[in-house]
Amino acid sequence: MMAGSAKEATMELPGPAKPQTTIFTVMSALAQRHGAVNLGQGFPDESGPAHVVEAAVAAMREGRNQYPPMPGVLELRQAIAAHQRDWYGLEPGVEDGVVVTAGASEAIAAAMLAFVRPGDEVVAMEPFYDSYKASVELAGGAIVPWPLEAPEFRPDLDRLAALVNDRTRLLLVNSPHNPTGTVLDRAELEGIARIAVERDLLVVTDEVYEHLVFGGRSHEPIAALPGMWDRTVTIGSAGKTFSVTGWKIGWATGPAALVDRVKGVKQYLSFASGTPFQYGIAAALGSGRDYYEAYLASYAERRDLLAQGLAGLGFTVYEPEGTYFITASAAPLGYGDGMAFCLELPERCGVVAIPNQVFYADPAAPRPEVRFTFCKPRAVLEEGLERLRKGL
């Protein structure tokens, strides 16, 4: 077949996924078209802390603009290891237990490609971040949903045990959980750990919202539980904690044997990225506890503002224990289909939200829940609520 022929241009290519227009792309376009307040997509409107930005700028001016070492610059790996030790008592090795990635998304993809073989199954808490399914399928595996059901959105451990079979390779755990805001408690983590140990499963845990846990609760990494360190890869990210989502600096930590496998894949994905940003995040992770406390307090205030405002408009609000998202049901407003509701909102109200159904294995099945974010300034949240009040 000649290169560039019509047949070549239209042929079906192998692979688990094709480029597609996602709901996030659609909602961004609608937001722009209608001048809508974007309360759907999870990126802050504010820039990161000044000392973090200045550390990245200083790195650029000092000429640190070439490829970093593939596992990440030493200063950042040291900062990540210190963070895990100081917050959770974990001890990843700076040289062999930490790898810096192009955001948590690359860490997830690299982990799935490292550990999942064709025909393997990965059990994941559903609803789930959309890259989970894509990453598992890229590795030739199949994702098995472990549903968190409304209104509690708590994990059913008996159901998890029933889902695990001889094809199960690993458990993909997300806490604090996007989009529901559930934070797994100690008993739930111990139940997951027990199943992982009994069935000899690997665990990959997405903890990017670790510093956004409300109401006096605390985040506990499953890797800290007995029997879990040697079988767990822990994924983190700076984007959410320091409001620099565009920098795309994430990481994976854990025992050397597992992190080495992740590095072996990561070198053929991005190899390395964001050298000056890595220095910025090294400075960020050195921020004192006062920063984290103020950060949490600010988001707790915004959470309460949005949750109370949505409830006052008639939504059923599921108050999040963590993350910067609120799941709310539009059913009391007469909508059983969150997708239809969200597609109407930009024109009707000048507001954008995301339908939760896109976070399910079957995104075509209508669900009334929608996701709003409160990672916006108070004035933006108030404007969004006022537009919803007038439009609804």
Main attributes?
392 residues, alpha/beta, Aspartate Aminotransferase, domain 1, Aspartate Aminotransferase, domain 2, 2 domains, seven-stranded mixed beta sheet, four-stranded antiparallel beta sheet, 15% strand, disordered N terminus, aminotransferase, pyridoxal phosphate binding
CATH architecture verdict of the largest domain: 3-Layer(aba) Sandwich
SS summary, helix count: 14
Radius of gyration based on Cα positions:
21 Å
The helix content, as a percent range, equals 40-55%
- Residue stretches low in confidence (pLDDT < 50, at least 5 long) are 1-14
- Order of neighbouring strands in the sheet with most strands: 2-8-7-6-5-3-4
| CATH class membership of the largest domain | Alpha Beta
CATH homologous superfamily annotation of the largest domain: Type I PLP-dependent aspartate aminotransferase-like (Major domain)
Q: How many separate structural domains?
A: 2
Helix-strand pattern: HHEHHEHEHEHEHEEHEHHHEEHEEEH
- Global outline: globular
- What is the CATH fold-level name of the largest domain? Aspartate Aminotransferase, domain 2
Number of strands: 13
In percent, how much strand structure appears in the residues?
Answer: 15-25%
- Sheet of most strands: 7 strands, mixed
Question: Could you say which structural class the secondary elements and strand pairing correspond to?
Answer: alpha/beta
The end-to-end span amounts to 57 Å
Average per-residue pLDDT, rounded, comes to 94
Keywords: Aminotransferase, Pyridoxal phosphate, Transferase
Cofactor: pyridoxal 5'-phosphate
GO molecular function, one term: kynurenine-oxoglutarate transaminase activity
InterPro entries: Aminotransferase_I/II_large, Kynurenine-oxoglutarate_AT, PyrdxlP-dep_Trfase, PyrdxlP-dep_Trfase_major, PyrdxlP-dep_Trfase_small
